[in-house]
Each structure stands twice: as C-alpha cells, then as structure tokens.
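Record passed on here:
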Amino acid sequence: MKEIKAGLIGLGTIGTGVVKVFQKNAELMEKRLGARLRLVKIADLDITTDRGISLDPALLTTDAYAVIRDPDIKIIIELIGGYEPARTFVLEAIAQGKHVITANKALLALHGDEILAAAEKQGVSVMFEAAVAGGIPVISAIKESLCANRFRSVLGILNGTCNYILSRMSREGQEFETVLKDAQTQGYAEADPTFDIEGVDTSHKLAILISLCFGTRVDFKSIYTEGISNISALDLQFAKQFGYEIKLLAIGKLGYGKVEARVHPTMIPISHPLADVGGVFNAVRLQGDFVGPVMLHGQGAGMDATASAVMGDAMAVTRDLLRKGPLRTPSMGCAVAVRADLPVRPMEELVGHYYLRVGVLDRPGVLAQIAGILGNHDISIASMMQPERQIGGAVPIVIMTHDAGEANVRAALAEIDQLELVREKSHLIRIENDLA
C-alpha cells in the first residue's frame, strides 16, 4: 500500500491532539485515503514532559531541521505558533519541496504573502484550515464549496475566550474582570489574555478571511481593532433593553472598490443568528451573490476540534500527492498573481448607528448640553434613557443614534467629555442592524 510520511513540529496542546488522531483513527484514514498517512518524526524543544500519550522515543527530536530536511517526509505540520522561528521553519520546508500545514493565524496574517508566494513558486501547498475557527471548515467552504460566489461580506465571532466572557456577563450580570479571572481558572483564557481580549487574535483571523473572500491582500495593521475590556455589565443590560446582544465581531465587507476590515464590540439584534452563538463557540457568516447567507457554527478552539482541522488538511494534501498531478486548489483559492490590492476603508469614513453612554451628575440642563453637542456634529438621537441608579456618584445617560459618521461621533464625544458635569468618560459601541 502507498505510504505518505508526515513530520510534526510542535508538541503542545494541538500537536498532542494531532498525535492522538494519528493513533486513534489511522485505520479509518487509511480506508478513506486508500493509502497510509504516517507520522514518522516529531520535533519539540521539550521531549520529556508526559503529555498523556504513548510515543516511541525514536520519533522524537529537539531539532526541527531534522524533520524539515528528511527527504522521506512529504508533509510538514507546523504547530509551534508565533512569528519566529515558525516563519523560518515554514519557508525552509517550502524550499525543501514539502507541503505545509499550519494552525498559525498570526504567521499568515503578517507573513502570508511571502509564504504563499514561495509555496506557489515551489509548487507546494500551504494549508491552514485550523488557523481560523478551529474545527469549523470555513476555509475549505470558501475555497471550494462556495468558490463560484462573489462574497459581499464575512462576519465572525472568532475568539472563544471573548465570546465566553461576554456570554457570561450578559447572562449573569457580572463584570468583566470577575468573569475573566474565572475563565482563566477554568482554562478558557490564557494567563496573559491580551491577544484575545484586545481583539488581536480575531484580527489575525479576519485578515485571512478577507484575503480568501475578496481576493485581496490586506495588511493586518490596517484592520481597526478594539477589544472587550471596556465593556461593562451595564452595557450588556442596556443592550438587552434595546433588543441587542454585544459580541466581539469581525467584520469584512466589500463595496465601492474598498474593503471594510474591523474588529470591535458590536451590538447585533437579538433576532440575528450570530446573537445565539454563546460560550466558547465560534461562528462565521458569509454572504455570497448566489448562495445568499451561509453560517458555519461550532467549536473554534481546543485540542480535539483544532486537531481535526489539521488532519483534514493532511488528508487533503495526501490525496494531492497520490494523484501525482498539479495541486487541485490554490492555497488562497486563487493564484497569488491575480490577487488584488484593494484599499481598506478608514474608520473615519464609517457611517452607522451608535450606542453612547456618558456618566454625568444629575443636574438640570445636562441633557440639553449633550443633545446640543450631538446636534452640532450632525448626530440625530433615535432614543435616550436615563436610569435613576448612580454609579460612582454619576448617573448614566444612554443614547442610541440614527445614522452618523464615525468621525463626527468621536469629535462629539471628545467635546462632551470636557463638560463640567461629566464624571465618567463617554463610551461608544457600534451597532450593526443590517447584518446579512
């Protein structure tokens, strides 16, 4: 029987999951491939820690290049994460004529063009289903099943840590810091959760999705990124009263020759399917010109779900190798040379609805002052709420706007914050009412 050999770099949580799939489902994979896909070498700096799996010591090495440069290995699975040495290892594997599978969204978001161009030149694949939304097969859906569509938008809840925190804050009325600490205790959040809670992880994933959906290069640094650390239980309470849930949403839209690329807390109608995505789950909603709206929902992280996606890529590459022909699907769904360079729309050009919250002293005339400043900046008020409860000596004023320009809203809030009666800095959350 034909045998394809693979090597693994990185034996952390996901790497351990990949080994488990190789061990548990080897017979199943063999039946489905009509060939044997075998893991023959594993590299990690730590090869002594017990990871709960039985491994032949002969498989293990601390030298990644011993895996990359092994002439018998055709597939390299990179699971060390980060920018370096992952970039160096991946480029060396490509130079050696190896097909590469990675779950490294940060690497692809920052160095994807370089890596994909090198792979295309060498005629090898770079597969990355596990880099976005874990076990949800969104990458293959975009590149294959839905590839005849022009995508108008891609929306995603792409970080399980943030979704877990916001879901619990909404359900239980607890504050951000309390839920974050509990999430860390339960293993849903890292000891240093910065990349998750400040939206960086989500932006990495959005950069990949935008490139796939719209066929354009997108500079990760041009994606507007705002995290959830400033969201309070009070905001979630008010959101419900107005008929919304708050989610950390990745938003990619194409229109008028520009791309919208932004990640921020977003109020979405309770009736929208994304509003029901709770806990650590992820979801991606695509809008195609022929297929219409499609939503994929499932586990976006974790050992088993992510390992499943990695092994799906490994089996797809194995099928290409068995065919001994040209690659069936380009890594980004189209040749690197035909990808466009569409500009990213600046946030200042955004027009939409806004939720505004200002903490003020309860004095006559304060509402008139705030309304006057908003009016001076062409911001029309759709509704307003002033609860009686006080927070730190201030009363919150909550305002929902009609369509307003982002630049105008920011300028108005900066002016409002200078008012003598304002005791708590103003806060805004963008509202998406017209989600596909």
Q: What stands out?
A: Residues 347-431 form a domain with the Alpha-Beta Plaits fold (CATH 3.30.70.260). The first strand starts at residue 3 and ends at 9.
